[in-house]
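help with this record:
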Amino acid sequence: MNNILEIKNLSKHFDDVTAVKNVDFAVEEGGFFSILGSSGCGKTTLLRIIAGFQQESEGDVIIRGQSMKGIPPEKRPVNIVFQNLALFPMMNVRENVAFGLKRQKLRKGDINYKVNEMLERVGLHGYENKKVTDLSGGQRQRVAIARSLVMNPSILLLDEPLGALDRKLREHMKVELKLLQKEIGTTFVYITHDQSEALVMSDKVAVMHDGQFEQIDTPRNLYKNPKTSFVAGFVGDSNRFELQSTEAGSMTTKGGWTLPQPDLNGSAKELYIRPEALILNPANNLNDVDRFEVTIKTILFDGSSTKLSTMVSGSNEELLISLPQNAQFEGIEEGHTLNVGIHHNDLKCF
């Protein structure tokens, strides 16, 4: 598949602050590419440079093989959806979606055809004459996307577009936005601080930290095989332990928990363990599994999942364990002791 967007050694400086540091990546045509990072990491600055609202200090933005140097925002083959949506409250749905087409001075019949087709595709047929102020949050979101997509951009840039929605609607819109992108086929470049959004919707995710990309990967690889300690701690839930010492075949945390690890890098300083990687009462015939005991401190139930807050026996380390949904709760009570196992390759050291 061809790359529609290429970012070449891009940097952006604001006086003494470097917001984006030598970023280099490519996005495939028709893909859903997310940039995931906390506030202040540089992701919005990067998106604004792609859109042309800010100029890079070094490097280049290339779209469909053409450098965007000196090309203003209105002449770039991109469109952007902001978190606040920026809809016109005095206009109805049809007028909002038609706004950009009217500025291009298209014929009225062509505008009506394009607007009707796009409203059909985003599931808003029949809402043409509604005021945007009378729509739900999810419907307003789709109007904003329709207004951008009707301009037929090569790339749609989305700047935290679900951030203003309540949690339940945000969960619904994650699925809806992914299905919409697949159906329409436009390339999406999406920025978010919400790891769930990035993992659920994206074909590729770039984790950004302090102006740089820590890792670009598929959501599954990003979660299962983090390349840095930042990615391991930022993406998903993890138990994090500082390592006191590492010797041939074993490691000891600062809280006094010793674990065998035959492939340990001697310079490792941190250990990460996913809560769901821990096995309750592991069978004796499982290979490459470390076994130990924990004491249950608290049972944490939130409806869809149950977690155990535990203490590792013989140490001062706390360990969070996720229970499988079909787990038997016999013997799982506060103060009880459990046998737990972990596969060697689920011990992530950095």
